[in-house]
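Q: Second attempt. The first request was missing the SMILES, so the protein and zinc ion are both included now.
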Amino acid sequence: MSHGNRTPHPRRRATPRHPVSPLGVPRLRALWRHQAAEANGPGGFHHVHGPHTHGWLLDDAVPELLEPVLHPEDDPLEPTFFASLDGPLAEALLARLAPARLAHRTNGSPPLRSLLRAAAEHPDDVRLHGYVLGPGRCDERIVAEGAVVRFEADLLVTEQHTPDCECELLWAYAVDELGLGDAVHAPHRIHPLQRADAPGETWWRLLWA
Ligand SMILES: [Zn+2]
Ligand SMILES: [Zn+2]
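A: Got both inputs this time. The predicted holo structure:
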């Protein structure tokens, strides 16, 4: 993520820390509206690189869908992270996001569409994590950096992928069963994790970052 050519932007200092939502308007939509208006206004900050959409995240019901998994930063130019994006939310996003948004990929990951599909079609076995760059950002987007996948196997997976590393078995499952084969390459990092809400289950993080 580059911040080259960023110049001080006096209007940013006037940003209220907690925008007031008109009655009935969810906080995230109000916040993003505010960010889009600032960016599209005469004093808006613009990075040298676009596409400068500044507001597509307000389309349709996207803020309402994402609100439960996002905890926006006060700084509109910082990423907002999400975790545990689950099957029903993935299915809703697939139905709402335009094809160009779903085609986006990061760091050699599968396209967002494939990750959302994996979560939607395997709701008991896949969660997604990543971040959102809000309408204040010139590169406004939803980024899925990886998936957390249930795979009940006692694999040896080593950080340095030594010759005895068995991560290929997990990646083969992700490709064959979860449909993640349109990644540019296998994840940069694979490691097991315990989910507090799923004790006794074996989950693995596949991360492109
Ligand atoms: Zn811009
Ligand atoms: Zn390995």
